[in-house]
Every structure is written in C-alpha cells, then in structure tokens.
Amino acid sequence: MIRSLHEAGADVFRINMSHTDHDLMRELVRRIRSVEAEVGRPIGILADLQGPKLRVGTFHNTAVTLDVGQEFTLDNNPEPGDTTRVYLPHPEILEAVEAGHRLLIDDGRLQLVATEATGTSVKCRVVAGNKISNRKGVSLPDTTIGSGALTEKDRRDLDAVLEADVDWVALSFIQRPEDLAEARKVARGRVGLMSKIEKPQAVERLDEIIELSDALMVARGDLGVEMPLEKVPGIQKRITRAARKAGKPVVVATQMLESMITAPVPTRAEVSDVSIAVYEGADAIMLSAESAAGQYPTEAVSMMSRIAEEAERDPLYPGIIFAQRPNPEPTGADAVSLAARQMSETLRVATIVTYTATGTTGLRTARERPQLPILALSPVVGTARRLSVCWGLHCVVSQDQDNIDAMIDTACRVAVEEGFAKAGDRVIITAGVPLKIPGSTNMLRIAHIGSDGLSAV
To answer: What is the pLDDT of residue 10?
Structure first.
C-alpha cells in the first residue's frame, strides 16, 4: 500500500504519534525506506508529535446535559463530575484562565465563558451547546498556557523518531516562538522542524514563529475550532504567503478530501478547496484520514495529485502565482535563483538543475516558482528526503563532483535519465564554486545536451 500511495503521487508520509507507539513507528519507517529503495527515489517521512492534549475528567453517568446560561465549574477535584462541575486534570489551565476567556469543549460543541478564576477552579457560564461527556477535549482560544508545547510523551517520541532517522518533526499547538526552542535543542539539526499553526496565539506571532521554523503547516482542524470558521481561509492565505516570502515550505492540511473516507470521488467543493491551496502557492497538500483510515486511500492520493497538476496547467496559474512573488533577499543564492528563473522564461530550456548540499539552494529556487521542472541534485540523502516536501523539486541523490566539467556532465546526464530533457535540449545549472562548500551558490551555467546525453561544447 505504501508503494501504491507513492506511485499515486505521495512524496511524504506522515506518522501520527498520537496513534502510534515506538515499535509501530519504527516498523512504518522501515517499510517506507524499503519502498524508497525499491523505487530509487527519496521519500520524506514526517513524524507528527501529539502535543498537549487537554481533556476534562469523567462523570458519574458518563455524560450530562447542561442548559444555556447555567453555571458550570471546572476544578482540581478528581471526583467524578455532575451537572454543576467536572475535574480538569491540567493545573496549568486552571492557573492561566482569566474571567472572560472562552473554553471550548468537544471541538466547540459546548462553549463556556469563564466568569471567575481562582487558580484552582474556573467558574463558567454555558453560552452554546448542552452536552458534555467523559474525557472530551478542551480548547482555549483566549488563553496562553505557561508550559511549553512539548509534553513528556512528546519528549519520548522526539527521541525515538530522531533515532529512527525521520526527516521532519511536526510540533503541535505552538503558541509562541519559544515553544520551538526545546525541540531545536534536542534535534540539533538532525531533522527539520515543522510548526503547526492551529492556535490564535500562533497566528498573532506568525512572523517570529516562521523565522525559527524550517517549515509550516496550516492545521485547519484545530484552527477552525479555536477561531471563527470564516476566518480560516484568510489565515490560510496569510500563512502560505508569509512562508513563501521566507522561503520556508508550507503544508495545507485537514479535511481536504474528507468525503473520500467513504466515497470513491470527492465533492466539487473539496476539489475547489484543494485547487485553491495550489493557486495560493502551497508547497504540499496533505491527506489525513482519507489515506490513513479511509476506504479509498490510493484513489484519494491520485485525485489530489490530479487536482494539483490540473491547477498548475491552468493558463491563469502563472499570473496568480507571479503576483504573489516576493522580492529576493540580498544573497548569492537568491540572486542566482532569480537569474535562473528569469533566464528560463527567456530561453527555451528544458529544466533547471540545482546542486544543493544543505537544501538552501533548492528552497530558494523553488521560492521563485519557475514554470518548468527543478531537478535538485544532492550528495546528502537526508537533504533529498527533506526537500521532498518542497514545491516543484524532483530530488535525486548524486555523488559530489571534483570539477565543474564533471558537474555539468552529471547534471545533463541525470536530466536525460530522469526524463526532463533529451539530446539537443538546453538546461540551466546552478551550483557553488569552489565545489563542496555548502552555502556558496554563485554559479549559473547554460548547458547544451549532446547526442550522448552529456554536455556538448
């Protein structure tokens, strides 16, 4: 099934640590790497940490019915609850909530407003909904919790996924840039950190969080619980554009083809939703239950891939994506990437080939959104895997070259082997000189492919 999903278009596989123990995680990584070896293409693996799961305690009779307008208290008493109160086993919430803050239970099906907070209990008024049952989740759109985003479970999971050699770690319920500090200290550059934007506090400090993140995810599920639903599309656009400006990959996720959990085709509205993310410049679009637990996983991946390809074939697509193009930074990598994109629009070339050891040059080239394929060659398999989440990059693991002529020949040969060029075509090649020095992108060459598949003089 993993191979089938990859062949249908999946470039990255997400392992949800909320539902996966360490043994299963390691087995899934082994299976994905086995498929990677079979197909000969780098495949990315994203481990999604659970984050703080805030839940109420239990009730004498499993559930209770409340009335709008009545008082209801959440406290630190572990006794089973009733129609007047329930245990909240999270002292950090009881200490942080203030009068006027909203508390959303069970994805917002029950809505409370705090009227009095003592540090050990929160007295609330019911403003919407009427039912609450055992262990339902609590969302706090107005409250900044003092504790960090990593729980003890997350710390254990992070250590385990680092040992398993995954490529990305997604951090859940980020509220502030400081929430990334602990994970970055543990990761020490061995994995890319993807911040999931799903809380209002994160939206308010978006630019700071982007600066400290390697990638972003628009986690629309919880974002739509903690913020008015009508605001989510605008926030999605804001996050997507800000991430592209910073040259950081951005993933749009949650309920993209939700009906395909049980149906072989999506709704027209879902197709439109997926295509809008593509038109907005998202690097990746993500399936969750559709492929993890749905009845039509391969069909869902294939459908999403076809929607993305059709959107990018639309004659209106270049104008939309170019209108959002950010200005280049004053760096060699940006200057070369900009020149490569401009030359590709002027000359009739087959592809842009970029040599990238750390991934930076690949990211900056993709940020320009050229209207032809980008072939990213890297001697580091981890870099190639990590770049699989980025827009437009076809990654190939290639040996380091000792001289420029060998580098040019390799670029031409791989472009032909991967089906992006043929004899007689021209390709644009970017790299750094001297060779084998990361972060030194400063060279742009136009090469003509000869009849032998190598560069012609």
So the answer is: 97
